[in-house]
User: Fold this.
Amino acid sequence: MSTLSSALPAKPDTKGPPIPLAQSDLRTTLRPLAFGLLAAGVAGLFLLELTIGVVRVPLRDILVMLVGGEASQAAWSTILYELRLPRAITALVGGAALGAAGLQLQTLFRNPLAGPWALGITAGAQLGVALVVVAGAVVGSTFLERFVFLDNLSLVAGAGLGSALVLAAIASVSRRVSTITLLIMGLMLGFLAQGLVSVVLHFTNETQGKVFASWNDGSFAGVHWDHFPILIPMVIAGIATALLLVKPLNALLLGEQYAATLGLSVERARMMALTSTVLLAAPITAYCGPVLFIGLIVPHLCRGLFNTSDHRILMPAVLLMGAALGLGGDLFVHLPWERHFLHLNAINALIGAPVVIWVILRNKHMRSLAM
Amino acid sequence: MLTIEHLSIGYTAPRTPTYVVAEAINLTLNEGELVCLLGPNGAGKSTLMRTIAGMQAPLSGSILIDGQNIHDMPARERAKRLSVVLTERVNAGLLSGYAMVGLGRYPHTNWSGTLGEADHEVIQWAIRVVGAEELAHRNVSDLSDGERQKIMLARALAQEPRMMILDEITAFLDLPRRVEAMRLLRRMARETNRAILISTHDLDLALRSADRIWLLPKGGPLQTGAPEDLVLSGAFEAAFANEGVDFDRQHGAFRVHNAVSGHVSLQGGGILRYWTQRALEREGLAIHATPSADRWHIEIHDEADATQWHLHRGEQRSQHPSLSDLTAHLRHLQASPAAWDRQ
Amino acid sequence: MTSWGAPATLRIGATLCAALLLVLSACQPAAQTSEDADGWTRVSGAPGANLTAACVDAFDPNIDYFPDKVQPRYAERFQVTYHGHYKVLRGNVAGSEWGPEVSDTVVLVQCGTPAPPLDGDLADAAVVEVPIRSMASNEDGSVARADALGYVDRVMGLAGGGIYNATLRQRWDDGELISVGQSFHGAPNFEMLLANEPSVVFLFTSSLDHSEAVTQGRDLGLATVPIVGWGEPTILGQAEWVKHTALFLNAEADANVYFDGVAQRYLDLKTQVADLDANPVAIWGGPLSSGGRWWIEAGSWMAQALADAGGRNPFTPDSGETAITVSTEAVLERGTDAQYWLTDHVDRETLEAAGPMEIIPAFRSGQVYHIHKRAVPEHDAYDWYETALVRPDVVLQDLVSVLHPGVLPGHELFFLEQLPH
Assistant:
């Protein structure tokens, strides 16, 4: 508080040179450009998703079909509308949803390694789905009814309930325990859910177990148009809630005590953010299985790219970055590989694990806690 | 402006008896006033601060700001009236100092927190008031603890409250900075016509800067008055009686109890005498004004080029260029009782 | 011993049959008209035999367009009914570990005749026009069956390149076949299927995941048909699936001839062996990758073939199971008398790493056989999953010659091979 020679103004007064808002580094200056590039990247990846596949369909035909025209081959229309378009939309929406969920969890729990998977929310959703599948088996269903049943809201409801329960458990203790404890708790809740899934399925018809085993791996490919009437509104509601929360989330950067003194109703903000997270993570897990790492790393990539923790910038950024990562991972999996069948989570882990290590090493707080 | 009536603070928890920290508190706080809350550790300073800040419910009684109970107010309305800076270190990630101060506009902005031109004016003013112009563009996570508290203070100011509640905010600062900070707060209170309540351990500073002191001894009751009134009434001595220190009413400072291990006499005056006396007291020596044959006598020789401390008893003499040298020699003498005790 | 023949012999037989049918059909009042792009003709009037490469020109509801019919005698997982110009194929998609007892219906409509109204018990049925012009399969059994019937040229797509069949191997290497998926257990490649439009897509169905692929394919407009022949409890039932494939080719006559021959040879040998006194203990199984556990054939058509060969299986299945999972301890305890051991592991190390196998007599004497003598591992091609499914008689001959040396003098093992001792 060095120099206060001049008399203090009693009222707001901006005499003197304007104070710079933030370090005028390149990342701050180029923010609009970064947003533009991200948006262009998402659009480009979306188009690539529609264009690249085992069957070569010319970009021209794709564009013609997209504007409502006729493709040169009838089968291309089915390939585009029934296979590639739903998958691309799911990857876009799923990536964005997981990114927004991850950002909210990281701010809410003040934990750089929080994410739908790390906190056991994904596992909770899986457990919910497993119970629904088992319940379905007990009730009984015929061949076709099963798939109507899978499309049914009950699957998403199961996932939503399971993830909400885990989230409630995590939230109830989050204020009493440290960052690392919370992560370990999340991990253990995850294992617990996985163990329960395994045991529950062991005591029921093996087929249900097989449904679940194949579903255990994340993929954006299994989603059809029929699923969108449930999936899309839930995710949109989740994203809308997240966007409404940018200001409270900024206040929560200071911790709950400070946030409360700034006029934030902390309980309400927490409830809204947790609801938003469930709305985002549960339907994606229900329809796509556990998609790992995207929710965890997207917020960090955005903070690095935009050099800020301001949610007014981060929230749109994670939506775009999440969509880009979702599309990119899915595109990579569905490139016309000769022999191999790649798994989405394998690709996600290859990108995600190094980012997590980088976060831990860079974050003084985490590093010291980890010791 | 702030009126506290029949306030009782403490904690309630299910299945445990209510724990009362302090009760029957009646206080007022006026515009332009800097009030320091003082008290020994464990007396309940933090509880009182948190209760006044609305972060904790009172057991009974009311806290009124402009006649309205702050615990009945919506959070946003309360935030427009009082802002808080806490001791805890804030780890806010990648926020510039400017953005951090901007968060102070929280209760004044729309749903998305967009800052208007008027908001920017307030932020710039707040940054200037605390002298944080150089910190505004830097990331808060890169700032030192003191710099960070400065930004947090600007943030509290940008909130444009009627009253600011500052909990131990000078704890991170070194002594000169603390003096400066208190002076700044006093001016802020005066010139922006706000009330500032600050809790501190820094008794000396509080005595010199506060318009009024709220003194909270262990077990109460809370006493209030001008710093000097409380000194003269002996309230300070009473409040800190059991802390192993004496409150020196003469100097308005604490004096550490030390068992007397010997006696010396001292000759000399002015500032040199004062600090020599401090050094000797630290060594546990009782100081007498008149020399005597059976104890060591110290004379301060303040020459133009250097200060010398002469030590003698009978024929034994030594000269010391510094107090460190002198006290070392005295310790050496005391180590052998034969050399020390002549009587 | 040549009576089990080579597929080549059968193919000649099938070709002769086809030629005969052509001659027969020429004698009938049915009149041929123009040929289409595939060289198919259009015929009118009542055919003397099923039309294997022709469409009906003027539909007459009173004509039975399928004078040749099949009925499964051993197979339990499909049934067929004939309705003049269409057949209704009902499949028990699965059961026990192959999935819940649920059924699937496919309506096979003679080309050139109208499809029946899809209501009542046909409400959810898929419709396939027969005879099919092309087929794709992610399961090699259907391919082997088509080959046995002489229709290997109708195959247009396979899952991956793992095919042993020499003709298809060549066509795969020449790039003439499409890939419909990575393998039988991977998801089908719907883009490829949509772009190439095979008349029918046979999908191996072991779990609901694959059943879902059947539904998804149908939603996309593909004629997907689940194949669950592996779940048949008897080896003749498994082999009888040649009739299932024949339904799509209108090759019922060929299928009956083929299957009757195979079944007769099988049953003759079974009877011959039943008169022997020897019932050596024989186990068919191998260690699971998870360690400490083994799968043992019990209740499967393989276990049944082993029993028909006079082998005594110390393991009995729970109801409905085809293979059981047991611990190494149980294997060592109940296998103490096993004189013969059959497995799909081609190396002895894998087996011996799983436990102290020398306790078991078969391992001490070297009577351990694997089933992949006919294989090209670098191509992921194993004839056991192809020819063995249509030649149970040869499988039984192999087993008998192992379990009862001297009963089939001069028989050279076809599928089985002794592991080096």
